[in-house]
Amino acid sequence: MHHTWEAVDHYFEAATGASDAVLSAVLRAAADAGLPPIHVSPLQGRLLTLLAQMRGATSILEVGTLAAYSTICLARGLSPQGRLTTLELDPRHAAVARANLAAAGLDDRVTLIQGPALDSMRTLHARGHRVDLVFIDADKAGIPDYFELAVRMALPGAVIIVDNVVREGKVLDDSGQDPSVEGVRRFAASLSADPRVTATTLQTVGVKGYDGFTIALVARIP
Length: 222
Ligand code: SAH
Ligand code: DHB
Ligand code: MG
Description:
Elements: H1 4-16, H2 21-32, H3 42-55, E1 59-63, H4 69-76, E2 83-88, H5 91-103, E3 110-114, H6 117-126, E4 131-136, H7 143-153, E5 154-163, H8 179-191, E6 197-206, E7 209-218
Parallel strand pairs: 1-2, 1-4, 2-3, 4-5
Antiparallel strand pairs: 5-7, 6-7
Helix pairs in contact: 2-5, 3-4, 6-7
The chain binds S-adenosyl-L-homocysteine (SAH), 3,4-dihydroxybenzoic acid and magnesium ion.
């Protein structure tokens, strides 16, 4: 079905230059390898770049790499000496992502850890790894756990972005039947009582349909 918002997405994609040869090559390699086309859209990727730049991010953590499309967008917003760590469960996705990061010239600034993200986050946290921007975009059932660890790893003033919190309004399904929806709902239900963060949700439409991001700011004085 054609939606006006797809054409508008393409219009602003061209107007802003949010797509380029590097990102197009990432998508071609991902499609050639048979990976699902569930990466952030070009304009959403530009939002990730801008949020990282606005934060002056020096230590970014990404949960859910796929082919490294969002990884590259985030890495482009790193400050000059900044580093990014990205976590991916699927070894096939990780292999495609590593090749794409090398082709983008970012393999010296990005570390990909292959394995269950919760294990990797616990290890990083135990080692004292600290982050100033986190993008949570892996399995949706895991969002409450990923968010809690992200807050614990956060430097004061860190930004945490959670993808796919709307899912065409599926977030309103309170039947308890869908583990992805339950993950988002349990996370959302925790936000207002959490004094460590201030959050909002931005509903989005575009080439990925109707979805949204929750964006949280971790307090500077906890
Ligand atoms: N952030 C990417 C899209 C990620 S898609 C982009 O926008 O370009 C979600 C990814 O999370 C998939 O690659 C999937 O394999 C991965 N994933 C799912 N469960 C995971 C887990 N438990 N730990 C780490 N990664 C996981
Ligand atoms: C799915 C996952 C995503 O991270 C996304 O942005 C879109 C779809 C999915 O699992 O279907
Ligand atoms: Mg996503």
